[in-house]
Design a protein that fits this description.
about 110 residues; alpha+beta; YaeB-like fold; five-stranded mixed β-sheet; about 30% helix; about 25% strand
Amino acid sequence: MPKSNKFKWPENVSFTHDADNDFAALDNTQRLVVFKAIKKVASNPKPRPDGYGKPLAGKLSGCCKIKLRDYGIRIIYKLVPPDSENMNIIIIGIRSDNEVYDIALDRV
């Protein structure tokens, strides 16, 4: 779980160490927006059309993303195990698409 105890995360959400650091680096407003987005998706994290996750293809196949367009934030997570509803957050990034995906590839 992220270092900030301010938020009560759903039980099916976990963070990699790097994603924990990503979350800690956000300002308070961004943290709140990310928390709300992850909490919403955690209620049904499976890929579309059955859930909220937008599936990724290619080398990140098996991962899903949450895109917060207004904030320029992308969150990439993986269901662990693949058919479960347990989300493992891999990256939270305020970066261009390609940079976030490249970093996610290194972390997977």
